[in-house]
Request: fold
Amino acid sequence: MIRYVKIWIAAARPHTLSASVVPVIVGTAMGYALGALNWGLFTATLLATVLVQIGTNLTDEYADHDATDSAHKYAAPHKVIARGLLGPAAVKAGAALCFGVAALLGIWLVWLTGWPLLVLCLASVAVAYGYAAGPMPLGDHALGELIVFWFMGPVIVGGTLYVQTHGYGWDAFWLSVPVGALVTAILVVNNLRDREEDARHGRRTLVTVLGDRPLRIAYLLLLLAAFTMPFAAILAGWGGPLLVLPALTIPLAARVIGWVLGADDRETLHRALKGTSALHMAFGLLLAAGLAIGGMG
Reply:
């Protein structure tokens, strides 16, 4: 039983889940800074968001196994279906369960808040499924970075804030940019690491379309945008001086940038991927702390 649970945990890809946890925490911190915090709503939002991401991961697993075209079908060594740990039907059912429970939580949240959240929920689930599955997987058509930036940044942060406060503003949008930028940086490193395999199997990511150098520059610009925005927010009066807290992660960022800009081997880029994920989590938590303690303008 314990082994079976561990297999499902591996299939959920827990190392990726900071991408859904961080924006919910940041959006909730914004709500708290504005005088609104409902722990029940926070829990439901967090659980629904994480379940959507797990459902996306399982859909990706199933789609890679089920694809019949050579442009999409390949099995990475870590895949649970390829390793015979779970059957395709079980993975498909797991994805459906995750999306189903997330949908029920979303319906409850919409009932408590209003129809604008319904629009975000429907769009998020559609994109989550369409990212890896369907006749034209969005992630295989050089749209991954744009989708991840938008939905794992402004959409989730803004949706979470709306759940707590029934409101939204441009200050919240700009303060969500670092969250979206850093989670996009994770995808950039992932695609840099997998560029040869993706190209061999016909997957069109920005790396395979544009080449390595533009994406390494894009990675640097994403991190620059993330670290610049809190200072710009202070100058614009959108938050207090504690918004500088994410600057504490600059040493980690410098180390990871060195790996990304200076390495070609898969092992170093994998280390950079893990480092960027850690940077996303640490930066996001410090940004949330700066908002919750220091307030918003």
